[in-house]
Amino acid sequence: MVKRKGLSSLINFIGILVLFLVMRSAAANSVSMNTLFIQIGYSIIMAASLNLACGYLGELPLGHAGFMSVGAYTAAVLTTKFLPQTSAVYPLALVCGGLMAAFFAFLIGVPALRLKGDYLAIVTLGFGEIIRVLINTVFSPLTDGGKGLFGIPTYATFTDTFIVTVLCVAALYMIVRSRHGRATIAIRENDIAAESSGVNVANYKIRMFVISAFFAGIAGGIYAHQLGVLTAAKFDFNRSIDYLVMVVFGGMGSLTGSIFAGSALTIVQYLMASLVEYRQLAYALLLIVMMIFRPKGIFGRWEFSLTRLLARFIPALRGEPKNIDRLNAEAVRPDIPVYEVPADTPVLRTSHLGIRFGGLQAADNVELSLSEGEIVGLIGPNGAGKTTVFNMLTGVYQPTDGDIRFLGRSIVGMKPCEIAAVGITRTFQNIRLFKSMTVLENIEVAFQTRMHDNLADALLRTKRFRRAERGARQRALEILSVFGMQDMADQRADSLPYGMQRRLEICRALAAGPKVLLLDEPAAGMNPTETHELMETIRVIRDRFGVTILLIEHDMKLVMGICERIYVLNYGSVIAEGTPDEIRNNPEVITAYLGKNNPVNEGVGGATC
Amino acid sequence: MKPATFLITFINGLQLGSVYALIALGYTMVYGIVKLINFAHGDILMVGSYVVLFMLTTVFAAQTLLAKIIAVAAAIIFCVVLGIVIDRVAYTPLRSAPRISALITAIGVSLALQIIAQLIFGSEQIKFPAVIINETIFKIGKKPVKSLPIITCIVSVVLMLLLNLFVNKTKPGRAMRAVSEDMGAAKLMGINVNNTISLTFAIGCSLAAVGSVFYAQKVGYVKPLMGSLPGIKAFIAAVFGGIGSIPGAVLGGFVIGMLETFVNYFASEYVDAVVYGLLIVVLLVRPAGILGKPMREKV
Amino acid sequence: MKKILVAALALVMLMTACCAVAEDTVKIGGLSPLTGAVAVYGLAVQAGVDYAVDEINANGGVLGKQIEFVWRDDQGDPAYAVSMYNQLVGEGIDALVGAVTTAPTIAVFNEAAKTGIPAITASASAYEVTNAGNNVFRACFLDPYQAGIAAQFCKDNLGAETVAILYDNANDYTLGLYEAFTAKAAEIGLEVVAVEVGVAGQADYSAQIGKIADAEPDVIYAAEYAQELAIMLPQMFDAGLDETPLVGPDGFSGVDSQVGDDVGLLANCYYTSAFSLNSTSDVAKAFIEGFTAKTGAAPTLFNALGYDAMKIMAQAIENAGSTEKEAIVAALDATDIEGATGHMTFDDHNDPIKSVFVISFSDEGKEQLETVVNP
Fold first, then answer.
1. Distance (Å) from the C-alpha of residue C285 to the closest C-alpha of chain A?
2. Of A162, A224, B52, C170, which is the most exposed, with the fewest CB atoms less than 10 Å away?
3. By residue range, what is the domain housing residue C252?
């Protein structure tokens, strides 16, 4: 059991080898099979790579065939016109094709990925159309334009296609199962929470988009060198849709699904060849019926594991993957930053802070100051601008006036992920968890800025990667155990009860190693017992993690019970500041909560809703 | 460019633009209300023109005025029913599913419509009978100015104004706006959401049916794949103008139609690159489209 | 275990045996786009080939055996075409007739060249098609050839000094025609005053046509297919080009059935073709008569090319005296046949040498023979 990881790799290697030998013997005896297998190979790469952008990143690219065409033409122009006529250059051509596709993806992605959802879809659709026009016009001296590029050497064989396909899928798998993959999925689940947990959303979107295009480019290279002829017209919108169908059919977020659908749909097309008229109708109806009855696709987000399958029959293979004792060996934990608080400087201080949305002054001249280790409350009636202040502090909104200084340094203009890295994290009023991820993964996402293994480590599964992953898991479990949640580590975040979800959000915010923790209505929706527990927890957090806490809350019992100081906000301005007792008796605060002519002076506590 | 050619090109651009605008309205309304890019919408256009063709060649012996009116009415009714059926059968079950699943379904529906048309009518293009009067009004030099483009523009603009009135001034129109703003809240307010969505599909499809007559007569022929290109162009027009916005779809339709026509004159080999390039630039500068409202996610 | 092995072995032997027995037909594979955007041409070629097969089988087949013809749909897609070709090879075909459009044909011929299987395309007209090997042939003439003759016709017969060209830059066929026409025009002193691109599938070519009208050419050369031409013709009339002669390639074939009653549109149309309904040869007459009787419609160029491709292949198999690949290829090289599209022999590049018909339309919209250009 000790060497379980190594054993699993061995099993997978043997599995792939067996598959290779079986397929090769089939391919050797039949040209038909040979061709079909090559087509399946590049279809799988196309589907799996599109899945990265679509299933994992959660975008909807409609121009994947455009990247395929860039890769196909780049590789084919190289082997046909520039490189020596020997199949030894084929791998080089494939990689160049992939790189060129990646380059185009970068060009289109940098501006386009700022857009959300369907708009990105339209831009990629437009790109796919434009690239065809360019191939036929501007690039025609190289591509031979509309006549088509002929005489491409047909280097693609079953063996090399198989190897390339395995490598591509494995690479995608390695990326997806790493902190980079977790960050990507977190973006899909909730981009605002991901950004606030330290994930550089813009950067990751581009990165994944470019990687996705890179593999599409490689698939294009195989396509070109199988057929020996290229015409731009074949890389149209319909081809992009074909691959999108494979992704959705197999399951968005399941590489197993992409492999299955890439193979199955290619084979179905092949087998249905004799049913000329009704083939496409059957295909169309299949799509509709499939989506109605199983919109998640065949596999959903499930992944096949050969080891797991064998373990059903061979008990010796059953291991305990998350065994902490074993994990204790060789682990590098995520950094816990050390903050130097200069003497006489507040940890966090705002001056003249204000923001204006069009004609609405949502916050005006807000002056807050938090000292090391304080628990401070921010209260005010609904719509007073409390969450707006949080949004400015965390970079979600950019203030239009004033300054925010963290440990004496201005943080205005920083992106939320940079602010999280600097040392301010938050929770959200309406819970924003990465719902389909496990509890553990939710926390691991927040280590983003505290880990040092890079994409290459993830791809090659280096020692550094494995140590960092173990360390992350250990630290995540530790944080969970502070909240008594270690037993829930492997549950899906959205399966937790409400109170636990709120706690998990706090855990996640703490995982990033902040100096200042912003809690937005942590007790909302909790019953009195839970609220009472929460008060204890907040104190424990402050003491154990050495954080300074600013919290928004409507529950006055909680606010008055744990806050050392309180700011009261109304109509975007601070109307009072002081200890709980001072606030309770401040006439202006009472007016703000109860209205001007209310004679009853019960204290604010009575006015909570 | 000679002045006469300019004028004729301008009129042709207007004509193409108004057809795009009619189709774009369907896209924009459906998108506004169910957030679905209804890829089958372009094919509704195709179905509409085949219905007119069928009525005028198979059902009626003579193409009298009455026959033409009945044919167009039949096309509208057929498309409306088809649109509602498609929504109820293929899209309603997916209302709460991921949006991309509904998108794939729409693609499936689009394919199915094309193939069914091909099975019934064959894949070759068929000559479309003249439905709308297309006489020469006057001539500039040797170039005739014909009535079809003028009628197309007038009818389109009138329909768009009516639609705008309907959406803004009537009770069902208000329900549509409410559902597009917040489906859950609309349901709580007692609006029958499913009926409202059906109404949206019905309006979109009837406009597409009207558009189909103009489009098919402009081209002169119908074929099973005829809907996909104007479908995509109209969709771009809707996005360009600001998806969900009725004036936006009209503006987008006219801009795209005009742009396409004039780029065809000056640099025909780059026409698609220019149209899509402009779209990308517009989206990057104004992500919500020219007349669309930017949406801010509440944090 | 042993039993199963023996049984399996027996089964395999039985299958081989029954396949060996079934060798009493000559099996020929056909590849054609039967669905998709170019299905119109695929179906036309298929009809021509099928007619030829019926005719040959009715007359006793080849080598004393019946021809068994197997069709596969390539959808006009090269990747798909290669798959389907391999399926056909798997079924043990002796020869291939196909594909129809250029890119799929090139992809398939690249594969066919590897095994040396005799292959002929009815209609793929780009020069590169027969580059793949010495076993691949075609029945149609080349794009440059007919475009050159069209340019000559514009100058000599129509007396034109200036020409405007309309073509589709995304289509290998029209692009090839455009390039060859431009080259020939420069050679013979025909001035090109406008070049416009009309990508297939557009609804409106009136802007490009308007620009051509502004250039006031003596004649227009439209490298287009009949479907696009039918859409363009009324738009040309609306642009005031109703009296300017319009010359085109064999893609125009079938335009008369497209325009229907509006025969006036065809008054100034001419096109170059390998086939004419007014052909005087006996083979062509018999084909036109027989095909019309069988299908109820007069044959088009693509029907005729399909017919000829099949006839060439059948004759080569007969002359080879066996279904040996090399023997058939040698016989194909020596082809000398009178087909529906005229007399044909093959040059060193396996392209046919044959006559070009220039076709115009009568006042009733019927095709008529304008002139014949012999090689």
1. 33
2. A162
3. 143-273
